[in-house]
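Worked example

This section walks through a single chain of length 185. The input is the sequence exactly as stored; nothing has been trimmed or padded.
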Amino acid sequence: MTLTKIRTAAASSLAAAGLLFTLAACSTPAATQPTTSGPVSPATASSSAASGPCSGVKVIVDSGALKQAAADTSVCVPVDAPTLASKVLDEAKVKTEGTTQYPNELVCRVNGVPSADFDITHKGGKYREECKGMPAAFAYWSLWVKPDAGAWGYAQEGLATLQVSPGESLELLFTVDGEPAAPAA
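Given that input, the structure is written out below as tokens.
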């Protein structure tokens, strides 16, 4: 074997090992249970597995003040370049629903939460989200982005235009009467 062939073989082995390491960081260990219903996909992980490093985009759905665990999830979505947030959520099997007036600009429901027949308790009484126009100013889903080594920031764009990059986290958080005000650390 020539020196060039040895170097090429070594470089190929290192690249393959790096790829396997990257894929392993975003895959679900066999012993964990997914936090979302449905089949386990490469983008599905348990909340404990997803709390570790993610070489893709970490997606978190937190029903916050609603405390509806059916909506909650934490998964790592493998991406290797800036990707639209809407595509990352699709890969994470997170289903968002807009409103009649703003079907793509706003998020009214995430994974069916809050359902149309769910009473949202707030300071002013009870409220049911109908998803017709703007969600109530006291009860809504907010979109947050966190760089790999930084603090959460309120997204300045919507799902259709926001791009997230490998190492970032993306969170949909439901807030009632200003609580929680931001994602947990």
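What to look for: The two ends are 53 Å apart (CA to CA).
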